Amino acid sequence: MDETLDLIQWAAFALSLLAAWLVASTREHRRNIGFWVFLLSNVAWTVWGMHTSAYALIALQVCLAALNIRGLSKTK
What does pTM read for this prediction? Predict the structure, then answer.
């Protein structure tokens, strides 16, 4: 189980990079998808942060999720 949770870190990393690439797109639809992918990465980072007791990381992800929700509302 610990190895699976440790792999979440790499999935979160990949999701964050993909989301950043999508949000930088000139196409509104891709930017919108990017914010959803960022939210998924926030969840993945939070799960990994809980597993490793990284409370500052969890707090950061909550704040970033709020910003991503704001970004979603602005792309519609």
Answer: 0.91
